[in-house]
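User: I'm preparing a small set of examples for a lab meeting where we compare how different chains pack in three dimensions. I only have the primary sequence for this one, and I'd like the structure in token form so I can line it up with the others. Please keep the answer compact; I'll paste it straight into my notes.
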Amino acid sequence: QVQLVESGGGLVQAGGSLRLSCAASGRTFTNYAMGWFRQTPGKEREFVAAISRNGGSTGYGDSVKGRFTISRHNAKNTVYLQMNSLKPEDSAVYYCAAALPSSNSWLPSRRYECAYWGQGTQVTVSS
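Assistant: Understood. Below is the structure token output for the 127-residue chain.
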């Protein structure tokens, strides 16, 4: 089992920034590729960003490219999502997820690829 706990969500004005953190425990953190997804009521959970288990590869959803940055600190068992130039449409519950990769560079981008999930943290961007 892997336990994931997100933090850092909140209310921010459009154009502002937030940094989300996800602390992992329970299994060897470096065994897992990590991802961030988001969801609003009535919509499917959307891929936001992912990072490979060794941190060498990253990937982003089209709507956040150039504004969000994913990173990981393996010694702290933590993955981060730096969100800049936030827009009202970025408002959602953000979830951290862990996936067992098939290679060092593999990235999750689908909900079913992730075995473990955090409880989510709310991000609200006001216009």
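A couple of notes for your slides: The two ends are 40 Å apart (CA to CA). The mean pLDDT is 96.

User: Perfect, thanks.
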